[in-house]
Design goal:
Length: about 210
C-alpha cells in the first residue's frame, strides 16, 4: 500500500521492506518502545540507566536488520519520476483493489497494466540543470546520463536526480564523468543526438 507513495517521493522501491519490517517491528514493539516508556517513568528517580541500555540493544538490533536487508542485491532499485497523472492512475488502482469486495476489485489489474505501459513510454529529460547553474546532467551518446561539474558536484543533488532518472549509479561513480571534459572554467560533452553541450562558469569559458 505504501510502495507507490514511497516510489513517488523517494524514487526507489523497497521489494524486501516486508522482510525488514517482519524482523524489526517485533524488536521495536517488544523492546524499544516499552523500554522508552519505562525509562521515562524511572528517570525522575535515577534508576533509568539500565533501561536505556536495554533500549539501545533493541535499536542496535533494528539497525542490524536494516543493514542486512539493505545489503541484499536489488534491495532499493531506482524508479524514474513519472508525471502526476500516471501516479494518480496507480493510486486509483490501489483504491479499487482495497475498497471493492466484489469482483470489481479486479479492475485494478488493467489500471496497473495501463500505468506500466504509459510509464515505459514516458520520455525522461535530456538535461537536468542545478538551480545555481554550476552543475548539470545530460543524456550522452551512449544513452546514459553524464555529469557536467567543473567543481565538486553536490552529492545531495545527485542523490535526488539519479534515482528520479531511473539511474542506479551513486554520485561518486566515475562513469558519470566519462563522457565529459572539464577544467576549472567549465565542462563540455556530446548529447545523444551528436550536438555539443557546454557548461561555462566565466565569460572566458564562454569564448
Amino acid at each position: 500500500a505504501t510502495a507507490p507513495f514511497s516510489a513517488w517521493h523517494f524514487h526507489r522501491l523497497n521489494p524486501y521492506g516486508l522482510i525488514g519490517n517482519a524482523l524489526a517491528i517485533p524488536l521495536v514493539s517488544l523492546v524499544v518502545m516499552p523500554a522508552a516508556v519505562i525509562g521515562t517513568m524511572l528517570l525522575p528517580f535515577g534508576f533509568d540507566a539500565m533501561v536505556w541500555a536495554v533500549m539501545g540493544e533493541g535499536i542496535r538490533g533494528v539497525l542490524f536488520v536494516a543493514e542486512k536487508v539493505a545489503a541484499i542485491e536489488g534491495a532499493a532499485p531506482p524508479v524514474a519520476k513519472a508525471p502526476t497523472d500516471l501516479f494518480a492512475i496507480l493510486v486509483v488502482a490501489l483504491l479499487v483493489l482495497v475498497i471493492f469486495r466484489s469482483p470489481l476489485r479486479f479492475l485494478a489489474a488493467p489500471l496497473v497494466i495501463l500505468w506500466a505501459i504509459l510509464l515505459r513510454t514516458t520520455p525522461l529529460p535530456d538535461l537536468m540543470l542545478a538551480p545555481d547553474g554550476r552543475m548539470a546532467l545530460f543524456r550522452a551518446e551512449d544513452g546514459r546520463y553524464a555529469l557536467l561539474s567543473p567543481a565538486s558536484p553536490s552529492n545531495f543533488t545527485l542523490q535526488q536526480w539519479l534515482p528520479a532518472l531511473g539511474d542506479a549509479r551513486q554520485p561518486a561513480d566515475p562513469t558519470l564523468k566519462q563522457a565529459t571534459r572539464c577544467d576549472k572554467l567549465g565542462c563540455t560533452g556530446t548529447l545523444a543526438d551528436g550536438k555539443r553541450i557546454a557548461l561555462s562558469l566565466t565569460p572566458e569559458a564562454v569564448r
